[in-house]
Design a protein that fits this description.
4 helices; 0% strand
């Protein structure tokens, strides 16, 4: 019987993880460079960035940090979301494969 778990090494380098990460981060990063390049693809990343900014403003210790320092946690959270998307993708594929 095959193992039901996805190896972490396979999940970290999975194409679905990197594609979902790129869809969250790159359109928002490009729109921050030049606002004329803002596209609808940047909306999910922008919403996540705004939510993280709101949470950061609520916490008193983070309030004094500059706006640019929010990019590090944003990238980490985006990669975590991408790992969850990848794990869900592999679970669905494994569940419905013949």
């Amino acid at each position: 019987m095959a193992s039901r778990h996805i190896p972490l090494r396979k999940l970290v380098v999975a194409p679905i993880v990197w594609v979902s990460f790129a869809l969250l981060v790159f359109p928002l990063a490009i729109s921050k460079i030049d606002t004329r390049l803002f596209s609808p693809l940047a909306v999910p990343g922008y919403i996540l960035f705004v939510l993280m900014t709101i949470i950061g403003n609520i916490l008193p210790k983070i309030r004094n940090f500059g706006f640019r320092l929010y990019w590090v946690p944003f990238v980490v959270v985006c990669y975590g979301i991408s790992l969850a998307v990848g794990a869900g993708y592999y679970a669905v594929c494994r569940r419905y494969s013949i």
